Amino acid sequence: MSGTTALTTLAELLEYSRRHVPHYQSLVPPGPVTGENAVAVLRRLPLLRRAAVRSERPRLWSAEGDARRWRRVHTTGTTGAPLEVVVDDAAQHAERAALLRHARRHLGGHSALAITHLTLHLASTSRASVPPDLPDVALVKWNLSRAWQLPDDEFRSVLGELRGKVITVMPSVMAALCDRLGPSSGIAPRLVVLSGEQFTAGLRERIQETFECPVTALYTLAEAGIVAHECGESGTYHVEETGAFLEVVGERGDPLPPGVAGDVAVTPLVNRAMPLLRYVNGDKGVWVDGPCGCRRPGPRLELLAARTQHALVTGPNGHGVRRADLAKLSRQLDLSVSRIARDGDEVVVEHHDPHPATDLQRTVLAAALRAFLGADLTVRTLRTASAPSAAGPPADPGPVRPAFLPPGDIAAWARGVLRGRPGVQAAVLTGSTLDPAAVSRFSDIDVTVVIDDDPCQEQWYALAAAMNRHLATLRVNVTEAAGLARSPLVACRLLAEHRPVVGTLAEAGVTWPTTEALANEARFWAQNAESVLWTRLTAADRQRTDPVRDAWLASRFCLDALRYRLLCEGVRVTAARHVLLWAPEFGVPDATGIRRAFAVGREHHPPPAPGSPEADGFLRAALACVRWLGRSL
After folding, report:
1. Residue 576: which of 476, 474, 501, 493 has the closest Cα?
2. Residues 517/523, Cβ–Cβ less than 8 Å
3. What pLDDT does residue 78 have?
4. φ and ψ at 561, to 5 degrees?
5. Terminus-to-terminus CA distance in the chain, angstroms?
6. Same domain, 205 and 104
7. Which terminal residue of the chain, N or C, has fewer Cβ atoms less than 10 Å from its own Cβ?
8. DSSP H or E segment with residue 38
9. Looking at the domain assignment, is residue 170 inside a domain?
């Protein structure tokens, strides 16, 4: 650190930590801290390792500030469980500003930017915002895991949304995209910014071939934000001195000179909510001596990729996979990886989970490991019942995650629970689970059980609760055939789109309702739906609503309106994909807006900002569709 301002900021951080953070009150020595002695005072502190952050977390929180405005951030769980840290508004602003500076260094000028962060994390949430401190920048987080379920041509088409955007992304995600898209994808973003994982020169070249745009990198930590940016001239990293103080240290915390490799110790300068002084997360680096080709002054850091002595497994290219790399992949993919080994040209990854890895998990894992170890290797996943080792986080004892679980697996599991149970006449799996491309993060897994008795008996409540404990988002609907007769649309959906689990619906006495019954139900439904949509569209808190949820809600109302219209016309079609194909035949208003609502609700497209005209447009399109149905009945 060389700037006077940065040294003053470090001194202020040390003084603040001593006064307001219990963990540091006895560690930061007494006496004034100034820009002249700040570095010396800092280096008298012990290194802060992950285990200490975990054990001391309550004492690392500041006693000052408004905790309601702090954002919680979770790390990868390298040592078995993720860390949770909190960051204040100033730290969030500093991270956005550092990203913006880095993008503009490569793009030039001060024009408005659209920045999209891509993830393939099954539990990630798509969202968009326009930060009040950066009104000319649109920030979007887009979880591609649901769009990934689309056929190749549709997937390539939706990625056209990235044209002209700045993409921020983990290297493992880009490796998977390159594998699927191939060279010259035609998507053409303005810039790709890699962060969160180390990567090889080979992956950079593949990204350039696939996306035909510049590729750069940031050195980021979830718990510290952006701490350094890659120099395009040399491939080394310049420290973001306004936001972080970096050291390369030995095991005892002694600073190392240029050319000597050691642990990277990071001190984020801006975050006052939870100061982390001399934090070591396991990354290795070395200071590079001499001037940089870009003529920017100050020290340069070279991050060291894992070699044999630091790697869990090493590839033919000499690069390896570190414990931290594997932990990041495990968390991103919701896999409890317990072991990784290489046997010749094959890499075997064992994981300890309640269910086999999904196609998406296997695809992303294989692409990421090939990017680390070599493109010619094959990767095989193996589920094991043995206890997990320290290579990754422990198995999650909770419910099986429903994300893209094959309907055959769900039906087989439900069959094992329901077969031979007294009173059960039939059971079927229905809904969006039957079409993986139609699943949203709001979707339930619907199993309808038709019984010959009163569904309000305690035994059926207990059955539904027991099944729900073993499969997240499961909705068990227990009913009798007479109850379905009172719900014409539900009966039509069960008969038109289902996968048998036990028995048949015909044997249970479920029959198609009459057109008159459907029309009567549709009139009542349309009145209620119009009231719900109008109330939501005119609510005072529209600026704070989730556009993805609004899009999903709008698509649900549009879909049921179209279902009623088709069924009343004698067309026995209820599955979402087929209903949307029929919609133009009936002149539904704002068909484009309806299609957009479906795409955003399923996260096949990135969301708009809350309160924007596009976000309101989803509910407006649904309201017009419901009114159209009411007029047509």
Report:
1. 493
2. no
3. 47
4. -60, -45
5. 73
6. yes
7. C
8. helix 38-42
9. yes
Distance CA 398, CA 630 (A): 44
Q: Is residue 164 located within the same domain as residue 93?
A: yes
Model-level pTM?
0.86
* Alpha-helical runs (H) found in 21-72: 38-42, 50-60
DSSP per-residue letters across 135-177: TTEEEEEEETTTGGGS-HHHHHHHGGGGTT-EEEE-HHHHHHH
> What confidence score (pLDDT) does residue 52 get?
92
Same domain, yes or no: 539 and 566: yes
pLDDT digits (tens, 9 = 90+) for 540-572: 777 678 899 999 999 999 999 999 999 999 999
Give the separation between CA 116 and CA 96, rounded to whole angstroms: 12
Question: Mean pLDDT, to the nearest integer, of 211-239?
Answer: 89
- Is residue 187 included in any domain, yes or no? yes
Domain termination site, one of 367, 383, 399:
383
Backbone angles phi, psi at 12, to 5 degrees: -65, -40
As to burial, measured by CB atoms within 10 angstroms (0-12 exposed, 13-18 middle, 19+ buried), residue 482 is exposed
CB neighbours of residue 86 within 10 Å: 20
Residue 103 sits in the same domain as residue 194: yes
Tens of pLDDT along 488-520?
999 999 999 999 999 999 999 999 999 999 999
**What's the pLDDT tens digit per position in 259-287?**
999 999 999 999 999 999 999 988 899 99
Residues contacting residue 290 through CB under 8 Å, at least 6 positions apart:
none
Handedness of CA 225, 231, 236, 238 (dihedral sign): negative
**445-472 pLDDT per residue, tens:** 899 999 998 888 999 999 999 998 888 7
- The pLDDT-based confidence of 402 (bands split at 50, 70, 90) is low
What are the backbone dihedrals phi and psi of residue 72, each rounded to the nearest 5 degrees, phi first?
-85, 135
3-state secondary structure at position 478: strand
Closest by CA to 396, choosing from 335, 481, 439, is 335
**Predicted pLDDT at 336:** 84
Residue 454 lies inside a defined structural domain of this protein: yes
Cβ atoms of 197 and 328 closer than 8 Å: yes
- Token pair of 168 as six digits: 């921020």
Which of 114, 232, 235 is closest to 168 using CA atoms?
Answer: 114
pLDDT, tens digit (0-9, with 9 covering 90-100), for 20-51: 999 999 999 999 999 999 999 999 999 999 88
**CATH code of the domain containing 599:** 1.20.120
Q: Which of 502, 526, 546 is the last residue of a domain?
A: 502
Helix, coil or strand: residue 609: coil
**Least confident stretch, 75-79, 106-110, 167-171, 561-565:** 75-79
Domain with residue 482: its CATH number is 3.30.460.10
pLDDT (0 to 100) of residue 153 = 93
Q: 270 and 282 in contact (C-beta within 8 Å)?
A: no
User: Domain containing 359: what range?
Assistant: 308-383
Q: Are residues 107 and 204 in the same domain?
A: yes
Is 119 a domain residue?
A: yes
